[in-house]
Amino acid sequence: MKNVDDLIEEARSLADRGFSKGEIADELNVSRETASWLVDRAGATPAQGGGPGDIHVDWSAVGRDSSRLGHVAAALADLLSKKGEDVDLTVGVEKAGSPLATTVATELDTDLATYTPRKHQWEEGSIENLEGGFSRNFAEVRERECYIVDDTVTSGTTIQETIDAVRARGGEPVACGVLADKRGVDEVDGVPVYSLLQVIRVGDGA
Predict the structure, then answer these.
(1) Is 13 left (phi over 0), alpha (psi -120 to 50) or beta?
(2) What family does this chain come from, according to its entry (predicted)?
(3) How does strand 187-188 pair with strand 191-198?
(4) Which of 98, 132, 137, 145 would staple 117 via disulfide (CB 3.0–4.6 Å)?
(5) Mean pLDDT throughout 150-173?
(6) Burial of 50 from C-beta contacts in 10 A (0-12 / 13-18 / 19+)
(7) Is pLDDT at 141 greater than 60 in this prediction?
(8) Residue 198: strand pairing partners
C-alpha cells in the first residue's frame, strides 16, 4: 500500500522527467493542489501530515492488465448505455481516460475521440488562460451525441472543461462515465455522471 512518502517520491520522479504539475496530478489521480504539494515536498523531510485533503486512487492493477481493463470497461459501458439511444461517439479524456474510452467504445460500437485538458500544461497560478484540445488523429465531435470517459473525478473541473469543449465543437454530451468519483456528483452542468465507485470522505481526515 502506498503512503504519502511514496507519492512524494513518485511526484519527484515525474517532475524530474519533465512532467508538468498538471500532468503529475493526472498521473497520480490527485488534484492539482495536491500534486503541487507533493512536488514541493520532494527533497524535504518525510511528510508529517498537514497536506491537502485529497484521496489517491491507484487503479494500476486494472490498467496494467488488458483483460481486467476490458471487464471494468464493460461494466462502465453498461452504465453509460442506459443513457442515450443515438450515441455514436465516445470521448476519452487524456491520458488515463483514453484506454478506458477505447475499450468502452469497442463495447458500445462507437467511434472514438480524445481530449487533452488544459491542466496538462499547468505549473503554477491560474489555469484559465491555458487551452485544451481534441486530437486530430481521432473522430470529430461536431453534431454528434457522445459519452465522455475519464478515470476519476477529483474536483469536477476536467469533466466540466470537456463538456464545454464538446459543446463548443457542436457536439452534445449525453453522459459521463468514470471509474471513481472522489467528489460525489450525480451530474455536471446537466450531464449525468456515472461512476463504478464513489469515495466519500468522513470527517476532516486529520
Answers:
(1) alpha
(2) Belongs to the purine/pyrimidine phosphoribosyltransferase family. GfcR subfamily.
(3) antiparallel
(4) 132
(5) 94
(6) exposed
(7) yes
(8) 181
**Would you state the cell numbers that stand for residue 201, as one nine-digit string?**
470522505
Q: Contact at 8 Å (CB) between 89 and 176? A: no
Q: Evaluate if residue 203 carries a pLDDT over 70.
A: no
- What is the rounded distance in angstroms from the CA atom of residue 17 to the CA atom of residue 82? 41
Residue 199 burial by Cβ neighbours in a 10 Å radius (0-12, 13-18, 19+): middle
Please state the three-class secondary structure of 140-204 as a single string: CCCCCEEEEEEEEECCCHHHHHHHHHHHHCCCEEEEEEEEEECCCCCEECCEEEEEEEECCCCCC
- For residues 90 and 112, the answer to whether their CB atoms sit within 8 Å is yes
Q: What angle do CA 50, 11, 183 make, to 5 degrees?
A: 60
56 sits in the region (left: phi over 0; alpha: psi -120 to 50; else beta) called: beta
